[in-house]
Structure formats: C-alpha cells, structure tokens
Amino acid sequence: MGSVNLAEVLLPEMVILDCDPFKDKEDMFDTMTRRFEEAGFVSDAKAYKRALEYRESLGPTYMGRFVAIPHGKCKEVLKPGIGFVRCKSPFLYESAGESGEVKYAFVLAISDNQEDDYHLRVLATLAGMLAHDEFLELLNQAANYEDLIQGIKALS
C-alpha cells in the first residue's frame, strides 16, 4: 500500500485557515459539505453529510493532538479530494463516543467508484504525518494554501 501525495489531493478551494471555532462537529460538517458542493466536488451536500455521519457511526475520527479526520464515501462525490480547516481555537468534537478538542480537521470526500484502498492510503499517509511534530507545527503556522503545500512537500 503506497502512500499518497497529499499535496495533490488537498484542494485549494477547500482550505480554510483561522476560522472561528465551530459550535460542534455538525456545524463543521455543514460548513465543509457546503464548500465541497460549491466547489463542484460534491453534487449534493446533504447526501455527502449523511455519508460523513454514517462513517462517524462506525468509529471515532478524532485522532488526538487537536486533529480530526472525518471522511465520507458516496456516489455524490464527483471528484475526490481533501478539505482542511484550522480554527483559531479548539472546539469540542464528539465522535463515536469519544470526544476531544479539535483545532485542525481534514475532511475527505471519497467517490463510490474509487479503488477501495485509496482513502485508506490517504488516511495512512495523514496518520503517518500527524505522528511528526513538524507536521503539526506546519498546520499551526502555515499562512496560506501555498505554505501548507510547500511544507507538506518538504516533509513528504
């Protein structure tokens, strides 16, 4: 299982830096699914949100270290990709009976017809990078999308 080049799947129109903390996970899902729909990656934000919520029912997407990686797979995902949001301060993220403070969230849109292991490779790549303090430092410091991508390339 090869790793995935995050720089290629992290979408510029889906990167939100320094937004106010969300009220809760629902609030974040609403914002991100709407963005995916507006950017043309998802044909139906509601269907994609249902896919995210279904995945939440299977097990936690809270990763610790202020990070969550929710993901949804459905036929309404026209083009796969990853959104990233960094909040000014953490909000409480509840996921499958676990909860924690989240400041950084990677939101994956996975299309039904993608090879089954593709999103698992993306998740494995992200999880591997999140183990490194340099990556968390980058998530915290990046001034814009370009900074984020350059930093990811440098760390990959």
TrEMBL record:
<dbReference type="Pfam" id="PF00359">
    <property type="entry name" value="PTS_EIIA_2"/>
</dbReference>
<feature type="domain" description="PTS EIIA type-2">
    <location>
        <begin position="8"/>
        <end position="155"/>
    </location>
</feature>
<keyword id="KW-0813">Transport</keyword>
<protein>
    <submittedName>
        <fullName>PTS sugar transporter subunit IIA</fullName>
    </submittedName>
</protein>
<dbReference type="InterPro" id="IPR016152">
    <property type="entry name" value="PTrfase/Anion_transptr"/>
</dbReference>
<dbReference type="InterPro" id="IPR002178">
    <property type="entry name" value="PTS_EIIA_type-2_dom"/>
</dbReference>
<dbReference type="InterPro" id="IPR051541">
    <property type="entry name" value="PTS_SugarTrans_NitroReg"/>
</dbReference>
<keyword id="KW-0762">Sugar transport</keyword>
